[in-house]
Amino acid sequence: MSNLVKLLLFVSVVLATPAQAVLTIEITQGIEGSLPIAVVPFGWSGKTAAAPENIAAIISADLNRSGRFESLPDRDLVAHPSTAEQVKFQNWRMVNVDNLVIGQIEETGEGQYAVNFELFDVFRGKRLTGATFPTSARDLRRVAHHISDLIYETLTGERGAFNTQIAYVTSSGSSKNRTYTLLVADSDGYNPQTILTSKQPLMSPSWSPDARQVAYVSFENKTSEIYIQDVATGSRRKLATFKGINGAPTWSPDGSKLALTLSRDGNPEIYVMNIGDGALTRLTNSVAIDTEPVWAPDGESIVFTSDRGGSAQLYRVPARGGAAQRLTFDGQYNAGADISPDGRKIAMVHGGGGSYRIAVLDLDSGLLRILTDGQLDESPSFSPNGSMIIYATGAGNREVLSAVSVDGRFKQRLSLQAGNVREPVWSPFGK
Amino acid sequence: MKLKLGSFIVLALLVVITGCSSKGDVKDGDVAIEDRGTDADGAVASGATGGSDFSSGSLDDPNSPLSRRVIYFEYDSAELTDADQELLTIHAGYLVANPGQHITLEGSTDERGSREYNIALGDQRGLSVQRILELNGVAPEQVTVVSYGEEKPAAEGHSDAAWRLNRRVELVY
């Protein structure tokens, strides 16, 4: 009996581990004027009592998380249609929703499913789009995110970014015995997968443009080194192990090069490395700090942080080399840039007055806009459709992630139940 | 980074010297590439670097100035005080007298600002210390600089008191 109890305890601990690592999302600031939508729980035909995933709940949460929609709570659903014939538009007009999503999940074989959805315009009484996806149990959540993307794109005209991933770093334990972990999760925080664990710091993850590989910095050999790792297989390659700093890797848009920071010549400078043969081109040459290179989406230029003017500011240099041009003039400290997918905005850590916040510089107007109100906000990363910025922030004595819409109106927090989470990077659309 | 004019000139001279000796910035094919296969979670810390192939009482003597092995810095600065430079001269004397001894300079910052910028700032702090050691005759191969930026704070917390303790270079023999 006691052995059985021990066994059960052991199993529960093991089973609890992945669940604890899930990032939970809490919307901290909503917006007026988001579009009301009803997502009806999908119909189910299969051998079990209920479908293995609540597809409608995943879609509702995705749409709410975008800040552009507000889905009707389940208790306010006036009917539960799962086919077009069952839809009575006047019911939905009465509860003032603009759009309606219905669907069905059918078990087509052992662990095999067909997921069908339809999107309606309630006021015009018209079907807008729909599709059927054959899938396996493992990919049901991905299918739900893909449906969210299709609904989002149909209704907003902008590509959805729900079926994407985020990479991030966690740390736990005391200063004498700390564990660092590099993880990849779905954009809603589910399905976290550890891709590296170390007793020494892990830093600066960066996605390859096809979203299959991650470059990062590891101190596992008691010095900084840059690796690139295949997310699916776990196989990795050590790319930079020079004397001094090997830091801040970011992938060129064509996937053939990394921009990085090396201090092998006695001072932190920006270099570009060919991933194929390791050939290096040095882009900066100053006695100041030059670091944190990021590529413009056209691959023609690189934005980086330098304190050559006396404090940390952002500069831009042609990717093939040339003179650097200063981009930021507002505030004492602007660093850690990320460039929007359309190349027209730069997100950064903006410091001054004792606080560090996320700001966005609009390159067309030259206006800098502060989006967040934390004390120690850092590591901004654009969603691949450019609508949201995910970043790291403090909450009490813990580090958590937050996301903010590019207009600053909509905010949400992503936190672990325990430990610190930092350095989020949103994946490209990929594949 | 805020350097006084004096240290700026020393730095500029060093850049000129190292710039001449390295001759050109782009070297093809000098990248060590190692295929680590599929050891995705095999990041296991290695043993301590550096030799302990000599014996000396003074490093272990808590009353010796050599027992003082942390140098602290002002916010966003890699500048050393006169007192720090004096202490480093004593460490340099020990290293010159013990040419087989190696030292690692671990540079760190407080948590404010972006992480890779802090790696660069911690590196500059380590390099400031290295410069004083080498100006006092320590051989370059005796010294390694590693910057941990804000990744390994000595003190937890988000206060001025914690930040002051975290802006540092640790001298690790």
Annotation, overall tally of beta strands of chain A = 31
Proportion in helices of chain A: 10-25%
CATH class of the domain at 77-173 in chain B: Alpha Beta
Strand content range of chain B:
5-15%
- SSE string of chain B, helix = H, strand = E? HEHEHEHEHE
Q: Helix segment count of chain A?
A: 4
CATH superfamily assignment of the largest domain in chain A? TolB, C-terminal domain
Shape label of chain A: globular
The CATH topology assignment of the largest domain in chain A is: Neuraminidase
Average of per-residue pLDDT values of chain A: 91
Summary?
The complex is a heterodimer of chains A (431) and B (173). Chain A is 12% helix and 46% strand.
Layout of secondary structure:
The complex is a heterodimer of chains A (431) and B (173).
Chain A: H1 2-20, E1 24-29, E2 35-39, E3 43-45, H2 55-65, E4 69-71, H3 89-94, E5 99-109, E6 112-121, E7 126-136, H4 140-156, E8 165-174, E9 177-186, E10 193-198, E11 202-207, E12 213-218, E13 225-230, E14 236-240, E15 246-251, E16 257-262, E17 269-274, E18 280-282, E19 290-295, E20 301-306, E21 313-318, E22 325-326, E23 333-339, E24 345-352, E25 355-362, E26 368-370, E27 378-382, E28 388-395, E29 398-405, E30 411-415, E31 420-426
Parallel strand pairs in A: 2-4, 2-5, 3-5
Antiparallel strand pairs in A: 1-30, 5-6, 6-7, 8-9, 8-31, 9-10, 11-12, 12-13, 13-14, 15-16, 16-17, 17-18, 19-20, 20-21, 21-22, 23-24, 24-25, 25-26, 27-28, 28-29, 29-30
Helix pairs in contact in A: 2-4
Chain B: H1 5-22, E1 34-35, H2 57-60, E2 70-72, H3 82-97, E3 103-108, H4 115-135, E4 143-149, H5 160-166, E5 168-172
Parallel strand pairs in B: 3-4
Antiparallel strand pairs in B: 2-5, 3-5
Helix pairs in contact in B: 3-4
